[in-house]
Amino acid sequence: MTGAEIKEAVLDILSGIAPDEDLSHLKDEVAFREQLELDSMDFLDIVMELRKRYRVQIPEQDYPALSSMQSTVSYLEPLMKDIAKK
Amino acid sequence: MTRDFLQDTRDSYDVVVIGSGLAGMTAANTLARAGHSVLLLEQHYKLGGLATWFRRPGGHIFDVSLHGFPVGMIKSCRRYWSAEIADRIVQLKHIRFDNPMFSLCTSFDRQDFTRLLVERFGIAPATVEAFFDHARAMSHYDDQQMSTRELFEQFFPGREDVVRLLMEPITYANGSTLEDPALSYGIVFSNFMSKGVYTFQGGTDKLIHLMSDELRRNGCDTRIRCPVERIEVRQGRVCGVRVHGRTIRTRAVVSNANLLGTIFHLVGEENLDPQYIGQARAVRLNNSSTQVYMALKPGEMIDEEACGDLLFTSTAPAFRTDLLLSREISSRTYSFYYPKTRPGHDRCLIVASTNARYGDWAGLPPEEYVRQKRELTESTLAAAEKYVPGIRDKIDWLDCATPVTFRRYTGHIDGASFGTKYEGLAVSRSLPQQIAGLYHAGSVGIIMSGWLGTVNYGVIAANEVDAFLMHGNSQLNPQSTTDP
After folding, report:
1. How high is the ipTM of this complex?
2. Interchain CB distance below 8 Å, B466 and A51
3. d(CA B392, CA B237)
4. Which of B215, B231, B257, B446 is in the most buried spot, having the most CB atoms within 10 Å?
5. Residue among A21, A30, A16 nearest A72 (CA)
6. What local confidence, expressed as pLDDT, does residue B477 receive?
7. pTM of the entire predicted model
8. What is the pLDDT at residue B2?
9. What gap in Å lies between CA B264 and CA B277, rounded to an integer?
10. Which of A42, A48, A53, A56 is the best residue to mutate to test the B interface, defined by the most B CB atoms within 10 Å of its own CB?
11. Helix axes B125-137, B182-192, angle to 10 degrees
């Protein structure tokens, strides 16, 4: 998957986790927490969904890499480069 | 012949979950949904752990721990259970306090606490604001040396009345005290006291039945009356559980049994690192409880205006931890259950809870135990008279639970009704580093206690088990997902 496809995948997961939030104005470089009402369980759900959908493993010590869209995509790019888009 | 409670179980599962408290059930459901084969084993004859209820003659149904939990339970139930469960969660709007320092009613949210602290307690709005923001911003990375007492002293120096208002409900919810770390208070406080207190419409029985249906739909194999005797470990890995003399093989175990029971009784010291054992020995159990259950005669109603949904009472001049546990009871928390709790039901019930020490009740000679129970019931009725005048004539059924009762039904060491103290969290979280495939989820530290904390801890454990199983499959056993 390309960076753009990964971003799309993450947005799709986010829309399930925060169904009431408008994600169209989400800024890639700003922390999710500053733009959305996400708690630690929501971040855990992102991790679980990525594993379920794409079999990507994210160890707990790497969770801080998921703080913004930009950091998430750059963290996931090497892990998901050989995964086909769904 | 006795019934075989393991009839038709398979020889092996991906995961065995020990204990069907809310953490165990939620872990089982999350893992079953993720496609793993899951066996959930409960020692008692019904599911739910301390999220439980019991029936008594005359159509009375008593809830043990239903009132109340934080708003976050709605989101967690919707996500990890079902919309049907989440949609039954309703707010309890009248939370009352009555003690020698103050008597008041609150909707138990940030706005109303702010109003009370400013108007009734004369605290500067900026201080209240700063306290809420500080509590909300606390995280695990903070200094953990500060105690809850010191936190209060920082914001409300010398204000025993404010401490009481802000602390008493949290003590009721999870047994925490002023001596516990400020961090754990901060996290619970901002979860619990910012958006109100909630309950489940339909009662605990309805909730557990809906969860049980959901487990079945997701393919989880659930068995009651199945006390696990042993978690079997080989070469540092989980390989099975022993139950009713039978070994069921598994690659992963989530124990929702008490943390210390899991380590010392189910796993055994010989399988663990001595340093870890030392850490585990230092973990303090939380206290136990007593409860007096009062069912009113059909048609007898409680004045909802006067009593509210939850009533925190005390006759002690100030809030003190040692008084909370004393057998000379001065603090009682009443949960009032109106017919609205179970739409279609016409009964009012009252459950009076206190914190208590197991040692004060265990080991009493039988006659003395019965006498003490009667005394507890009598003193509770006398205290409740203030809120429900003429209560003795209105009662249809009385019952009483002590720490010994909690011990009997949950199997928890010393009848602990709130798991372990804060230091239990690190021991619980590092169990998988001791034994591959073994996870614990249950009441540890006050942030993982209460209905919401344990549900979420079940999800956290399930996430790790899911990762462990996937990792194991790709590395060790690419062909099979069920054979350990």
Report:
1. 0.88
2. yes
3. 57
4. B446
5. A30
6. 39
7. 0.92
8. 61
9. 9
10. A48
11. 110
Residues B291-329: pLDDT tens digits? 999 999 999 999 998 899 999 999 998 888 777 777 777
Q: What is the DSSP letter of A6?
A: H
In chain A, what residues touch B470 (CB-CB under 8 Å)? Answer: 51, 55, 57
**Could you tell me the two tokens for B122?**
């004369």
Which residues of chain B have a CB within 8 Å of the CB of A41? Answer: 72, 75-76, 456, 459
Determine the Cα–Cα distance for residues B252 and B482; give it in Å rounded to an integer.
11
Rounded CA separation B192/B170 (Å): 8
> What residue has token string 């470990």?
B233
Q: Which of B79, B459, B470 sits opposite A57 (nearest CB)?
A: B470
pLDDT in tens, A15-37: 999 888 899 999 999 999 889 98
A51 vs B75, B459, B470: nearest CB:
B470
Give per-residue pLDDT as tens, B104-153.
999 999 999 999 999 999 999 999 999 999 988 887 666 678 899 999 99
B22-33 and B450-475 helices, crossing angle to 10° = 40
Among A13, A33, A41, the residue to mutate for chain B (most B Cβ within 10 A): A41
CA angle B425/B172/B128 to nearest 5° reads: 90
Q: How far is A55 from chain B (nearest CA, A)?
A: 8
The C-alpha torsion from B90 through B166 and B144 to A61, rounded to 10°, is 20
Chain B residues in contact with chain A using a Cβ-Cβ cutoff of 8 Å: 34, 72, 75-76, 79, 456, 459-460, 463, 466-467, 470-471
Cβ neighbours of B460 in A, within 8 Å: 44
Contacts with A50 from chain B: Cβ below 8 Å: none
**The dihedral formed by the CA atoms of A52, B222, B411 and B451, expressed in degrees to the nearest 10:** 50
DSSP state letters, A21-77:
S--TT--TTSBHHHHS---HHHHHHHHHHHHHHH-----GGGGGGGSBHHHHHHHHH
